[in-house]
Design a protein that fits this description.
216 residues, Glucose Permease (Domain IIA), elongated, 3-stranded antiparallel beta sheet, 20% helix
Amino acid sequence: MRIHKEGFLVIAVAFIIWLTLNILVGLSEELYFRCFTFLLTTYALIFVMRFFRYPNRTIVENPAHLISPCDGQIVVIEEAYESEYFNDKRLQISVFMSVYNVHINWIPVPGVVKYFKHHSGNFMAAYLPKSSTENERATTVIQMADGTEILVRQIAGAVAKRIISYPKENTPVTQKDELGFIRFGSRVDLFLPLGTKVNVELCQIVTGSQTILAEL
């Protein structure tokens, strides 16, 4: 199993805690307590390692397709007013990631990064509508070759405490590039031109870098 680079330090710290606890508890003569501690801490360590897993996926690039930026479940498909960059109505598609999903975020369309901004905020549950404007979040706008602009917003949740974004303004990106990583449960919003053909439904499970959310 490959591990994403964002997990190296976290896993190292988790391993040290796992080792220290089991050494200390191992000094006890209580066999059942030692076994219970070993099983519980090993499960926690495996969970942390699994969270930062890096799946092997073949990404098929197609500028006419908007691919899912992350693994998760579709929780919003609706027209909504986007007030940070466009200041008009857009088609919003939102994907909610649970702690069990892969948390790598991919670039959904090829183009050039025209805008990026990180906002501090709250950490309410990411599936709530207000999380899009009140939680900690990072907004990236990608301008495609034909001038179409797509806004991608990474949103922290009740558990997620850090949003990591890689692209910089005025740099080219492809659908094989990573947008970033979010620790731990979280959500990604996309704002598209009205009239965009949507290929997914509410509650549908999608796969990052694989599922075609819409056709442009």
